[in-house]
Amino acid sequence: GRFADYYRKLFEHVRDIVLMIDADSGMIIDANHAAELAYRCTREQLLAMSIFDLRPEGSDRVERQMQVADDSGTLFETMHKRCDGSTFPVEVSSRGETLEGQRVLLSIIRDITSRRQLEELRDEFLVLASHELRTPVTSIGLRLQQLIRKAERGGTTEQALADARMTLEELRRLAHLVDTLL
Predict the structure, then answer these.
(1) Torsion sign, CA atoms 35, 41, 44, 49
(2) Phi then psi for 82, rounded to 5 degrees?
(3) Do 133 and 178 meet the contact criterion of CB atoms below 8 Å apart?
(4) Measured between alpha carbons, how far is 105 from 31 in angstroms, rounded to an integer?
(5) Is 93 in contact with 108 (CB distance < 8 Å)?
(6) Strand 28-31 vs strand 102-111: parallel, antiparallel, or unpaired?
(7) 18-72 pLDDT per residue, tens
(8) Partner residues linked to 20 by β-bridges
(9) Do residues 42 and 84 touch, judged by C-beta distance below 8 A?
(10) pTM beyond cutoff 0.70
(11) Which bin fits 17, alpha (ψ -120 to 50), beta or left (φ > 0)?
């Protein structure tokens, strides 16, 4: 009736991939428009496939995840395969339901390619930032140690001032780096 039409529109409009999968066979019973776009194939092609066709790894793992999804629901990350053979990372939220006497898995699948790219960029940034920050910190520490040793040995005021100025310059460089990062 009225609600079936509403849910169909919602099913088609949502941006995440939505698959309805037969819990026993793994066959795809229904797929939304986002699934067609993500997997780069038609709904007809998808409905002729099983969840095993979308997963590049072995079927044992897929069967275990299907069982957990059916028993208690599950959320995990994995790789999915498109109809053109390329793969992409996904986050899968799946749980079992009985619909019209048939046990099905309702799976909401999100393409996490951009999340993975951001994580890689963040990791690269942290490596670069830590290296760039360690250099002036090490330099400041060494200069201060030299300044203390010279003062203990009775070094001249001119030497101490020159070392203090160089240390202050390193500190300004560090402060500028921190400001830039923030």
Answers:
(1) negative
(2) -85, 170
(3) yes
(4) 12
(5) yes
(6) unpaired
(7) 999 999 999 999 999 999 999 999 999 999 999 999 998 777 888 889 999 999 9
(8) 30, 106
(9) no
(10) no
(11) beta
Residue 120 above 70 pLDDT? yes
Task: Specify whether the CB–CB gap between 164 and 151 falls below 8 A.
Answer: no
Q: How many CA atoms lie within 13 A of 170 on its CB side?
A: 19
Averaged pLDDT, 129-145? 80
DSSP letter for each residue of the chain: -HHHHHHHHHHHH-SSEEEEEETTT-BEEEE-HHHHHHHTS-HHHHHT-BHHHH--S-HHHHHHHHHHHHHH-EEEEEEEE-TTS-EEEEEEEEEEEEETTEEEEEEEEEE-HHHHHHHHHHHHHHHHHHHHHHHHHHHHHHHHHHHHHHHHTT--HHHHHHHHHHHHHHHHHHHHHHHHH-
**Both structure tokens of 90:** 């996904």
Place of tokens 């749980």: 95
Of the candidates 26, 32, 54, which has an alpha carbon nearest to the alpha carbon of residue 108?
32
Give burial (CB, 10 Å; 0-12/13-18/19+) of 176: exposed
Residue with tokens 């698959």: 19
Q: Tell me the residue type at 131.
A: H
Distance CA 19, CA 11 (A): 10
